[in-house]
Here is the input.
Amino acid sequence: MKKLMILIVAMLLFPTASMEAMPEYAKWGKIAVEETQKHYQAAIVDYKHIGRTELTPKKAEEKFKLWIRNKAGNEYGVIVTIQFDPSTETVQSIQFSETNR
Here is the structure.
């Protein structure tokens, strides 16, 4: 998981890096990290890609589990679900679900 977090940070720092070396879900992972930071105003401690589900021909979702630390020092997990149109890669919705595991 730490290696994947380093990859995400590298993507943010070096956006001109070759997309061929990155996993298919990397774009969605970056969005999950950015939106979670905005939503919770918290630091991302760890990151895991759960998987992709094709819901319909016009809707797919990527799920991630992020472990976050808020300003008070409390840590907890957040499941981030991003639904999007796979043909246009347009985000349709982003949902957050907190977990203590």
Summary: The CA atoms of residues 50 and 64 lie 5 Å apart. The chain has one domain: 2-13+23-99. Helices lie at 2-13, 26-40. The chain has a mean pLDDT of 88.
